[in-house]
Amino acid sequence: MSEILFTDERVVRAISLIWSEAKLLDDKNYPEWQELFTDDGIYVVPIDPETEDFASSLNMVYDDKRMREMRVERMMQGFSPSAVAAARTVRTVSRFTVESVSDSEVTLKSAQILSAYKRNHFDTLGAELTHTIVLDEGGDRIKLKVVRLINSEEAVTASGYLL
């Protein structure tokens, strides 16, 4: 079934948006990244790799629109450890699987490898991503982004960039 869905124009649009998001994050274009989300969109990085109840779980990040705006402001001000000498990143998002498709929404899972370089040190983070994309003629948007780091239950050194 998944093979057929990859020819579906709605799925192609959702994958294109996810790849565009990755490029914006690598370019540190955080204001434009924020615009990719719906007004009620959530960006979450849970600690528990199995949880689906993000609002009641402990998370590294659980951002609604207001919190994303505050996080982006900190990333761009230069006064926080995450903004001073921010890491350079390159991420690859691949291995897409289609969870659901309708005329208004697509949910995809994928794998992300993020390489970060800061102060003569490389870090590599792997994650399972889930994106729910709202399809709209005025522009597709992210309703939910879940980043399940493969080492989420350990100390994570993801300072200086968004996942």
Share in helix: 10-25%
Q: Compute the gyration radius: what is it?
A: 16 Å
Number of DSSP helical runs: 4
CATH hierarchy: architecture: Roll
CATH class: Alpha Beta
What string, H for helix and E for strand, traces the elements in order? HHHEEHEEEE
Main sheet?
A: 6 strands, mixed
CATH topology: Nuclear Transport Factor 2, Chain: A
Physical arrangement of strands within the biggest beta sheet: 2-1-6-5-4-3
The total strand number stands at: 6
Task: Give an account of the 3D structure.
The structure is a single chain. This protein has 163 residues and is α+β, with helices and mostly antiparallel strands. It has a single domain (2-149), classed as Nuclear Transport Factor 2, Chain: A. Helix content is 25%, strand content 40%. It has helices at residues 2-5, 9-26, 30-34, 65-77; strands at 37-46, 59-63, 88-101, 105-118, 121-134, 141-149. Strands 2-1-6-5-4-3 form a 6-stranded mixed beta sheet. The mean pLDDT is 90.
Write the layout of secondary structure elements.
Elements: H1 2-5, H2 9-26, H3 30-34, E1 37-46, E2 59-63, H4 65-77, E3 88-101, E4 105-118, E5 121-134, E6 141-149
Parallel strand pairs: 1-6
Antiparallel strand pairs: 1-2, 3-4, 4-5, 5-6
